[in-house]
């Protein structure tokens, strides 16, 4: 790679495809703990589902077809410099007419084209370092500040001195850090994963009073119950990846069936009864398996995040406080963590808050229209963020 922006096409070698088939052929599955059908998923990914997907992966799934579909997205790669880590090859989808992993943008692209009634967007959807088809980093200390630096530098390199962000999952945290470190560049943010703490009288007396006096709505009660479920029953992966990432990384790197079981559990548990097809599941899993750095690299962010020092004076907990960047929030009922509105208001100058009847953790894939409607409402003429990018009608 040079310093230039190069077109990129995914092209997995025949040798890699043969290798995964050999590994699948040697897979050895465990017995299933007996349980009724309704209770089966409480133990983790059911063996019978892994068996079905394993057989389809071996005998029916066509990666070349999935690869060709992914390559319909406008993709590029370029080098981005990160302080202390040199140049990294960053893979991204960039569309100047419309607008996880970068694959989620594929459902947003056709919905975000501007017209007389809706703002136009230039969308940059990156593969983060250690994910997808961007470089891996094996040197210690590549945490949230470095991920934010990569994305800010990428946007500036592409000619966007000012921009807005949209994120969920790790995108929530990275968006928070971008707003903290680069407020002169990041003009607004929209998030669909919302983490926050109850407001405190010392820092937010009005919100704290509201939180103390007013009862929670039905949405908020159900959300807190969902959060409790996740913290008690669904958080084990996080504890392992944030304390011993190399241990699980070895298993993920060696076995496509381990990777399948590990990821499919989240696709099932974190969505709002989304009807995943076997092709969708295996495409998502394959992107991890064929990623440039390998699937083990993707879990390192958990450890680095939990073991990093303050970022320009802010600890991880501080990032759940006020960041002075205009903020839009979407509450989705099957997200893995949901907070009351009085908690969310602590995060920044809230210009839009929406509640929805459907949707889960992978919102851009499950319910892309909801994300699009929120963005259009924020940035359309008359919207709270219209014209926020200097000299630009689109975003």
From TrEMBL:
Its taxonomic path starts at: Eukaryota, Fungi, Dikarya, Ascomycota, Pezizomycotina
UniProtKB keywords:
Aromatic hydrocarbons catabolism, Hydrolase
Q: By its UniProt entry, which InterPro entries does this protein fall under?
A: AB_hydrolase_1 (IPR000073), AB_hydrolase_fold (IPR029058), Epox_hydrolase-like (IPR000639), Epoxide_hydro_N (IPR010497), Epoxide_hydrolase (IPR016292)
GO molecular function annotation = epoxide hydrolase activity
- Keyword Hydrolase in the entry? The reply is yes
Domain Epoxide hydrolase N-terminal: start-end pairs: 5-96
Q: Identify which residues the record assigns to the active site.
A: 169 (nucleophile), 302 (proton donor), 361 (proton acceptor)
Residue intervals of the AB hydrolase-1 domain? 105-194
Name the SUPFAM superfamilies for this protein.
alpha/beta-Hydrolases
User: Which family does the UniProt entry place this protein in?
Assistant: Belongs to the peptidase S33 family.
- The name of this protein is Epoxide hydrolase N-terminal domain-containing protein
Source organism of the structure: Penicillium salamii
């Amino acid at each position: 790679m040079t310093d230039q922006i190069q077109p990129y096409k995914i092209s997995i070698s025949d040798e890699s495809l043969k290798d995964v088939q050999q590994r699948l052929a040697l897979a050895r599955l465990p017995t299933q703990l007996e349980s009724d059908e309704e209770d089966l998923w409480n133990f983790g990914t059911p063996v019978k589902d892994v068996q079905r997907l394993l057989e389809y992966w071996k005998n029916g799934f066509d990666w070349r077809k999935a690869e060709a579909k992914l390559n319909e997205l406008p993709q590029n790669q370029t080098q981005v410099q990160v302080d202390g880590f040199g140049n990294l090859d960053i893979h991204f989808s960039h569309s100047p007419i419309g607008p996880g992993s970068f694959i989620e943008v594929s459902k947003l692209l056709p919905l975000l084209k501007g017209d007389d009634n809706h703002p136009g967007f230039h969308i940059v959807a990156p593969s983060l370092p250690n994910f997808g088809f961007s470089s891996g980093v094996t040197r210690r200390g590549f945490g949230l500040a470095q991920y934010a630096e990569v994305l800010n530098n990428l946007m500036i390199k592409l000619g966007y001195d000012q921009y807005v962000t949209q994120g969920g999952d790790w995108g929530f945290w990275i968006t928070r850090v971008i707003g903290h470190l680069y407020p002169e560049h990041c003009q607004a943010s929209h998030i669909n994963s919302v983490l926050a703490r109850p407001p405190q009288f010392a820092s937010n007396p009005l919100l704290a009073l509201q939180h103390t006096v007013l009862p929670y709505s039905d949405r908020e009660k159900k959300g807190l119950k969902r959060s409790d479920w996740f913290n008690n029953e669904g958080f084990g992966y996080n504890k392992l990846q944030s304390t011993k990432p190399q241990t699980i990384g070895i298993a993920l790197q060696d076995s496509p069936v381990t990777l399948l079981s590990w990821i499919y559990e989240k696709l099932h548990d974190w969505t709002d009864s989304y009807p995943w097809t076997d092709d969708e599941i295996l495409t998502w899993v394959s992107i991890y398996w064929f990623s440039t750095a390998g699937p083990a690299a993707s879990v390192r962010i958990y450890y680095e995040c939990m073991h990093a020092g303050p970022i320009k004076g802010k600890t991880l907990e501080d990032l759940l406080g006020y960041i002075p960047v205009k903020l839009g929030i979407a509450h989705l009922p099957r997200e893995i963590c949901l907070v009351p509105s009085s908690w969310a208001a602590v995060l920044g100058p809230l210009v839009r808050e929406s509640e929805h009847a459907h949707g889960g953790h992978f919102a851009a894939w499950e319910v892309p229209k909801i994300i699009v409607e929120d963005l259009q409402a924020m940035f359309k003429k008359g919207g709270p963020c219209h014209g926020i990018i200097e000299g630009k009608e689109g975003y």
